[in-house]
């Protein structure tokens, strides 16, 4: 089979090699799937650079998320059968940027009927991250105000839709007119182009000086620091990631004085420590998808041969929505 293999760390376009590899064999609790679509995620970029917390032994095939068709179930697997369409995370080192990949059977879930293959591939990370961040961690309630950074990006686009589905007023922050237009199309009530406006002032104006009840921050750096200036009394800042490349330091005296919470979200831990919660969440997300309330923003559907360039642009922060590769 054809696959992108990583033999040394660096930038994707420099170190990934398109090679022939044997088709992987599923072990206990594993599924061999034919890759129908593989999504590009920021952890893929970091993993290829060698700066992610997960480091499979070299060489390996990267790609943490996919939609696939079950080809073979490993020993002891009874929940899925050949022909089933599933989505979820991969079992590295046999990742998604290939014609075939492995998945952990206990972490795979059925694809909602409303989604095609490309829409299903990024569904798990986008909406599971958003749902756990907004509902399990921040307890977002109807009538509250939600501020979403990187609103036209992968996880930000999902947070906008989930916020609206929860009955919140959503303020989206995006970089540039094109990304701002996408955030508006996704349903954000107020959209701020951070290149043209200071979001702190706009948030205070929109909320009558109260500030945002919940901040969803996959950016870090300056976005986090400024968010502390427009967070409401008893507000919650959900730290999702650091796409800016800067991990900010929190002034805990400021959090104390203003009575707000800083909540970390490492969604991957739930897969290991609370798998039942993952499946409960997927049931709710499937309901929302089939009702048309959430739909993955896939902006590029590319052939498998374009993985390095797609990851390069994702790492540079020039993409919107989700990039999906289809063999």
From TrEMBL:
Domain of life: Bacteria
Molecular-function annotations in GO: oxidoreductase activity; zinc ion binding
Domain Enoyl reductase (ER): 12-325
Sections of the chain in a coiled coil: none
Xref: CDD domains: QOR1 (cd08241)
Pfam families, A to Z: ADH_N (PF08240), ADH_zinc_N (PF00107)
UniProt protein name: NADPH:quinone oxidoreductase family protein
Species whose genome carries this gene: Trebonia kvetii
